[in-house]
Design a protein that fits this description.
Elements (H helix, E strand, L loop, with lengths): L3 E6 L9 E9 L1 H16 L2 E3 L8 E6 L4 H23 L5 E5 H7 L1 H6 L5 E3 L7 H9 L4 E3 L4 H7 L5 H6 L3 E5 L1 E2 L10 H4 L4 E2 L2 H13 L4 E5 L7 E3 L5 E3 H9 L6 E5 L8 H9 L6 E3 L7 H6 L6 H14 L4 E8 L6 H14 L3 E6 L7 H4 L6 H25 L4 E9 L5 E5 L5 E5 L8 E9 L4 E8 L6
Parallel strand pairs: 2-3, 2-4, 4-5, 5-6, 6-7, 8-11, 11-14, 15-16, 16-17, 20-22
Antiparallel strand pairs: 1-2, 9-10, 12-13, 18-19, 18-21, 19-20, 21-22
Helix pairs in contact: 10-11, 11-13, 14-16
Bound molecules: 5'-deoxyadenosine (5AD) and iron/sulfur cluster.
Length: 470
């Protein structure tokens, strides 16, 4: 999953009756999605969005609990907000502070105790009750709501307006599934996001249609275990993710489909085949493997081996020869030996990844990994991470360099950094910029790649895109 430790601000346009709100999102795409839904909800209550803390009457931190560093960052951010709140109080102005997301779920009332300036703590399955909670907060109550009710949440959330959708650009997330039943022994997600729940097919189709009608061209289906999707249709029949993707592949207006994040165990053959049969499904799969050592994978409770993972990639490449892979890795899981780590490097060499996310193991309270007595030294973790990241970076650069001289499809998303430029993404999520007219934003086009920088590709427009027709 694409994790950002830097916050991303959700954007929306709305009237100003309720004051101004800033929603800062940390962590995974699910949090980015939730942040936009909170913005939609508060927009309906009359809140206007701002990207500036200084303007905000309400600041919501949509937090991540996946690693200790992510959680600690929230408390330092809260410390700064507390100072701002105090300074405003001295001027007779108020600022409400809400902690949402996974830190809220995991720590609940502790957050209120640890930081007195926090007004509300609201979990990822209860933020639809924010309007009511805010009313109570305005009367001076400090509350925590971490109840789980996924169905109630989706029913209660308003759909965004066309203007809100347009302001967010041509690529959008749609949540199809939440939660995780896998209980990998390092991970807090099953505790913070709860059990796997799939949204009904009709809800997903309606939300997607609305986005596409407002001009969205790329849909990324998201879920903590997206490929475990099993949602009911109107007849009560369960659809797999592959079936959902095939249906969306027929929806007019969609140029690109993606899905994230998958688990190897749920990488069913129909999903692999979908990469051959659905032209709009991008040839890029994010599939976390975590480790290349079977011993460590077993200790992590991953329920797959390194060989299973390689076999999935073999079948994906059979279905779609140009498929590129990205993954997540953890180094220094308790008990990991030099030989285990060497197995991870060997697996990476065998696959060749286009991009990756890699982390030092961080013991999380309440997870089985944290109880183990054979924790790895911080210094060893640091060395292993450096070695792993240097190999992954080499592969990423090689992958980017290999696109030079090729002609690829780009979906243009926004104006480029320089006058007369437009910027978009390759099928492999690489940022690409070309000289071209702004009216091509929202379109796909064929681009000859002429150079690879360290983080983006430069190209030349050579023709109209094919993807939209696929
Ligand atoms: N320590 C380090 N990395 C972790 N991840 C999940 N839990 C931990 C942890 N305790 C990583 C995994 C997962 C990604 C989202 O975050 O690699 O795939
Ligand atoms: Fe965490 Fe494992 Fe579930 Fe992914 S599959 S969310 S790593 S428990």
């Amino acid at each position: 999953m694409a994790f950002s430790e830097a916050p991303e601000a959700a954007t929306a346009e709305s009237p100003e009756a309720g004051g101004k709100v800033l929603v800062k999102s940390y962590g995974c795409q699910m949090n980015v999605y939730d942040a936009t839904r909170m913005a939609d909800l508060l927009g309906r209550e009359g809140y206007a969005e701002t990207a500036e803390e200084a303007d905000a009457d309400l600041v919501i931190l949509n937090t991540c609990h996946i690693r200790e560093r992510a959680a600690e960052k929230i408390y330092s951010e809260l410390g700064k907000l507390a100072l701002e709140k105090r300074a405003r109080a001295a001027e007779g102005r108020d600022m409400k502070i809400v902690v949402a997301g996974c830190v809220a779920q995991a720590e609940g009332e502790e957050v209120l105790k640890r930081q007195r300036a926090v007004d509300l703590v609201v979990g990822p399955q209860s933020y639809h009750r924010l309007p009511d909670l805010l009313k109570q907060a305005k009367q001076g109550r400090r509350l925590t709501d971490t109840e789980f009710d996924v169905d109630e949440k989706f029913d209660a959330l308003p759909q965004p307006s066309r203007a809100q959708i347009r302001a967010r650009g041509v690529s959008a997330f749609v949540t199809v599934q939440e939660g995780c039943d896998k209980f990998c022994s390092f991970c807090v997600v099953p505790y913070t996001r709860g059990a796997e729940v799939s949204r009904p097919v009709a809800d997903i189709l309606a939300e997607t249609q609305r986005l596409v009608d407002a001009g969205v061209r790329e849909i990324t289906l998201i879920g903590q275990n997206v490929n475990a999707y099993r949602g009911p249709d109107d007849k009560g029949q369960e659809w797999s993710l592959a079936r959902l993707l095939a249906h969306l592949g027929e929806m007019e207006g969609i140029a690109r489909l993606r899905y994230t994040t998958s688990h190897p165990v749920d990488m069913a053959q129909d999903l692999i085949d979908a990469h051959e049969s659905i032209g709009k499904l991008m040839p890029y799969v994010h599939l976390p493997v975590q480790s290349g050592s079977d011993r460590v994978l077993k200790a992590m409770n991953r329920r797959h081996t390194g060989a299973d993972f390689l076999d999935i990639i073999r079948r994906l490449r059979l279905a779609r020869p140009d498929v590129a892979m990205s993954s997540d890795f953890i180094v220094g899981f308790p008990g990991e030996t030099d030989a285990d780590f060497a197995d991870t490097l060997a697996l990476i060499r065998e696959v060749g990844f286009a991009a990756s996310f890699s982390f030092k193991y961080s013991p999380r309270p309440g997870t089985p990994g944290a109880e183990r007595t054979d924790q790895i030294d911080e210094e060893v973790k640091r060395e292993r991470l450096a070695a792993l990241q240097s190999l992954l970076e080499e592969q990423r650069q090689a992958f980017n360099a290999a696109t030079v001289g090729k002609t690829i499809e780009v979906l243009f998303e926004k104006p480029g950094r320089h006058e007369g430029q437009i910027a978009g993404k390759s099928p492999y999520m690489q940022p690409v910029h070309v000289s071209g007219p702004a009216d091509m934003i929202g379109e796909t086009a064929r681009v000859a790649i002429v150079a690879a920088g360290s983080n983006s590709l430069a190209g030349r427009l050579v023709g109209k895109g094919e993807e939209a027709k696929a």
